[in-house]
Design a protein that fits this description.
The complex is a heterodimer of chains A (about 500) and B (about 375). Chain A has helices at about 10-65, 95-105, 125-130, 170-180, 200-205, 205-210, 245-265, 285-290, 300-315, 335-355, 365-400, 405-435, 440-475, and strands spanning about 85-90, 110-120, 135, 150-155, 160-165, 185-190, 195, 215-225, 230, 235-240, 280, 320-330. By secondary structure, chain A is α/β, with parallel strands linked by helices. In chain A, helix 7 (about 245-265) crosses helix 13 and helix 12 (about 405-435) packs across helix 13 (about 440-475). Classes of the chains: A alpha/beta (about 500), B mainly alpha (about 375).
């Protein structure tokens, strides 16, 4: 670095000049970074506000519609398309029977439950065999399936809706592909084995396919946090806010993500993420793009982006929708270690999908998704936490060089925090005003508190997690990590 | 903190700008906090009050329902505002579940609660969901008069479906023709599943008006609506006499793959008809470039199930290259196995065995015994 070189004999005056130059450069850099951060933050904030307002309009219509119950018998109507519920299962012997029973008893006229035993090393398959009287189908599968080797396909002799596939371990995407290729249903619902689905959820999540039978390719519902909720016979019977901080903060995040982000994007037909825990897809469309990719760790994000890409390239009219009321419940990490692992995985997956589909960015050929949604997503979700994290590192440097206007920084931090809290409260308000699952004002008060709390420590910690996720992505880390679950209240020990 | 921002010749100190932003954010926070908490408390209080009286009201309602003279008018007069609202929600629940004399008895409670009068006012209003609420209540109460006496004209597909349901449920519909006309004349948009179901219900006994309207209008419909009407046709399960089905065969040759598949399913439900017996037409259909449509055509031929249809199906399956379409064809053929040469399936390979196995397990799960197909 020439600017720091000090020649013998010229040290005193040269050193001062060089030092001055370095300090000046650092100060200029810091000032530039400061302006960049403020401008960047302002842009992202306007974007989020825009999304939140759009979400409110969307929610208003959805709430009105959900409160009207048309006078006809849904179960005798032949117009609900069949849904294959694909359940990948790896070492789920403790819960698989209950999960399958719960899926089989969902309120929907025509379903098929396809459980894919993804090379479990425990007794998952035996449990299913015993409980549902499974028998192996004595015929070769007449088509190729883009998945690891399948050892057997089983049918239940007691429940015609159940199909079980036994295959070599290949990961979640691989298991989903096996299920998608083997279901006979025109739509399939991808769910995690431990996801609890509201009894009427399928009747609601299918709505876009009924309204737009020629164009709907995917729809997603709301995922809520099940920690501390009471679960009986596979149904959430009592909704409680988690008693501990970390899951509570995640409730806040989920509310904001679903009631603001996804609803807002839905308003402009720009939904690019449907949660892997509960989403409905047109089977044929997903088969057309080769199913889920095996080499990605966030297959749910990847599949929706690829559907957008493929259908736009094919010049086909299509819709991807979000329906705010069908609810699936999932247990979220309650320890910082597991949460960090999950979020790093999500970050790596997001990077992967963004990099793989970078051609879509700012590309008018991909419509609104290419020109608006993807760039905003990358700016806010991919780069946003990194820039914020960098900001926390730069602050002490600026202070060291005397370039820190402490009053300004404090004001900026308070304003950004206040704005962040406002956006979070917007999500809570949407919840209270619409479906009001957290019906006690004390719970709502606690939710509002979490909206404040997440800005002090949790938010900063997430920027570290994002940076770690980026480093892992660059290093090519591909591990999934194990989700440690503590089970639900009301379940048998 | 120094610095200022200049614009249009004015200089505003940075501190002032930040203070204004802080004020706006503070205001937004205060408002959103109080609205959220206020709304939550309000809903909680209302829900609690309603929950407190619900069980007693349910009991009282059931007691009166089974009495000789329920005395709804006198009972309703004794109820508070909250109790009336809970009674209304209980009434809604029971009317959807009960039939016959019990339902007729309950309809008197609706009148006592003033629901028909309210519905009349709602129909004069402008909101779609107000209209839908009114029409739904009138259907549940079996009382079309407020609608018949009003100047309300259904416009949206949902309003049209709710109106036809009201008229058909109260025997006020002047045949399927009137229903189809309300549902489909100059329609803008497409139906929800309720609309589709309504069209299906009124056309099941008399499909002529639907088929006539579709023949005349199908070109002007948007694709989702056409697909919905085709799905209704596919589920009519009724004889269509000598109706002109040329619009269906035309739909089978449109550009949209989903429409072509829906048309094949609709044709499948109408049986083997002279109008579609044309071999050239069938050859075009089984030669469709889309495996999804070919699969639907195979199912259509399987549904027809007569010898000429099955021979076209078998012939097509032998040369079919898409494994998924083959499987759909063999699944359609399995149900007609008794009508084909027992040696023929051998040429269909593993797809045939696969379909046979599945058909046997379907039977076993449904009936407890395995019907042997092979």
């Amino acid at each position: 670095m020439p600017s720091t070189t000090i020649w013998p004999g010229t040290a005193p005056s040269g050193c001062i000049v060089e030092m001055h130059t370095i300090t000046h450069a650092v100060l200029m850099g810091l000032a530039g970074f400061g302006v960049f951060v403020v401008g960047y933050y302002a842009l992202i904030s306007v974007g989020y506000l825009f999304l939140h307002v759009l979400a409110l309009f969307e929610l208003r219509e959805d709430v009105k519609e959900s409160r009207w119950d048309p006078p006809f018998r849904k179960f005798s109507s032949p117009f609900y398309p069949g849904i294959g519920i694909v359940v990948p299962a790896y070492n789920e012997e403790a819960t698989i029977v209950e999960s399958v029973r719960s899926m089989l008893s969902l309120n929907y006229p025509e379903t098929e439950v396809v459980v894919v035993n993804d090379g479990s090393t425990d007794a998952t398959l035996d449990r299913l065999r015993e409980q549902f009287d499974l028998e192996a189908i004595d015929a070769e599968i007449p088509f190729d399936i883009p998945a690891e080797e399948i050892h057997g396909v089983y049918r239940s002799t007691t429940d015609e809706k159940l199909l079980v596939v036994d295959k070599d371990n290949g990961g979640k995407s691989d298991a989903l592909n096996a299920g998608i290729w083997l279901t006979d249903m025109p739509l399939f619902c991808a769910v995690d084995a431990d996801t609890i689905i509201d009894r009427d959820a399928l009747l609601q999540i299918v709505t876009p396919f009924l309204k737009e039978p020629t164009t709907a390719v995917a729809s997603g519902g709301v995922i809520r946090v099940a920690n501390d909720c009471t679960v009986e016979d596979g149904i959430v019977t009592d909704v409680s806010l988690p008693k501990t901080g970390l899951p509570g903060l995640q409730v806040m995040e989920y509310l904001r993500a679903f009631y603001s982000g996804r609803l807002g994007l839905n308003r402009i037909n720009g939904l690019i993420l449907i949660s892997g825990a509960f989403g409905l897809f047109q089977t044929e469309a997903v088969r057309e793009i080769g199913g889920y990719r095996h080499d990605t760790i966030t297959e749910d994000f990847d599949i929706v982006v690829r559907l957008h890409k493929h259908l736009t390239e094919q010049d086909r009219e299509y819709t991807v929708d979000f329906v705010p009321e069908p609810v699936a419940w999932t247990e979220v990490p309650s320890s910082r270690r597991v949460l960090s692992r999950q979020r790093r995985r999500w970050y790596r997956g997001m990077m992967e999908t963004v990099v793989t589909n970078r051609k879509m960015l700012f590309n008018r050929a991909y419509g609104r998704v290419g020109t608006l949604v993807m760039p905003f997503f990358v700016a806010a979700e991919t780069l946003g936490p990194l820039i914020e994290g960098l900001g926390y590192v730069v602050l002490p440097v600026a202070w060291y060089f005397g370039a820190l206007d402490v009053t300004f920084v404090l004001m900026f931090f308070l304003l950004t925090t206040g704005y962040g809290v406002f956006l979070s409260w917007f999500g809570v308000f949407s919840e209270v005003w619409s479906f009001n699952r957290y019906d006690s004002p004390w719970q709502v008060l606690r939710l509002l508190w979490y909206g404040v709390l997440e800005n002090f420590g949790y938010r900063q910690w997430k920027t570290i997690v994002a940076w770690r996720g980026l480093i892992e992505y660059v290093r090519g880390v591909e591990t999934w990590g194990v989700m440690e679950r503590s089970g639900f209240a009301g379940e048998e020990e | 903190m120094a610095g200022a921002v200049g614009a249009f010749g004015y200089e505003v100190p940075l501190i002032v700008i930040l203070a204004v932003v802080a004020l706006v954010i503070g205001l937004l926070l205060t408002v959103s906090f109080y609205i959220t908490i206020g709304w939550s408390v309000y809903r909680s209080v209302v829900d609690e009050r309603r929950d407190r009286v619900r069980d007693d009201l349910r009991e009282a309602l059931l007691e009166r329902l089974f009495a000789d003279d329920p005395g709804w008018e006198e009972w309703v007069e004794t109820l508070s505002g909250t109790e009336r609202r809970v009674t209304e929600s209980l009434l809604d629940e029971f009317l959807r579940e009960l039939d016959g004399g019990d339902k007729a008895q309950l309809q008197g409670l609706g009148v006592a609660l003033g629901i028909p009068d309210r519905a009349r006012n709602q129909l004069d209003g402008r909101g779609e969901f107000e209209h839908l609420d009114a029409l739904t209540w009138l259907t549940l109460l079996g009382d079309p008069d407020p609608y018949l006496e009003s100047a309300f004209e259904p416009e949206t597909p949902r309003e049209r479906a709710a109106t036809v349901t009201l008229l058909s449920e109260t025997d006020s519909l002047d045949g399927a023709g009137e229903g189809v006309s309300i549902l489909l004349d100059d329609i803008d948009g497409q139906f929800t599943v309720f609309g589709q179901d309504t069209l299906h219900r009124i056309s099941r006994s008399d499909p002529t008006p639907l088929l006539e309207t579709a023949r005349r209008e199908y070109r002007s419909w948007n694709e989702p609506l056409l697909a919905q009407v085709l799905a209704v046709c596919a589920n009519l399960e009724t004889s269509v006499g000598d109706q002109d089905l040329s619009w269906l065969t035309a739909a089978l040759e449109t550009e949209n793959e989903a429409i072509r598949a829906a048309a094949a399913r609709a044709l499948g439900s109408f049986g083997w008809r002279e109008t579609v017996r044309d071999r050239a037409f069938l050859e075009r259909a089984v030669g469709d470039p889309s495996p999804r449509v070919r699969g639907a055509v195979y199912e259509m031929l399987g549904a027809w199930g007569d010898q000429p249809a099955l021979s076209v199906l078998l012939y097509a399956l032998v040369s079919e290259t898409h494994p998924r379409a083959v499987e759909r064809g063999t699944a359609a053929l399995v149900d007609r196995r008794d009508r084909i040469d027992p040696d023929t399936p051998a040429v269909l390979g593993p797809a045939w065995d696969w379909s046979v196995e599945h058909a046997e397990y379907d039977d076993m799960a449904r009936h407890g015994s395995k019907r042997v197909y092979s």
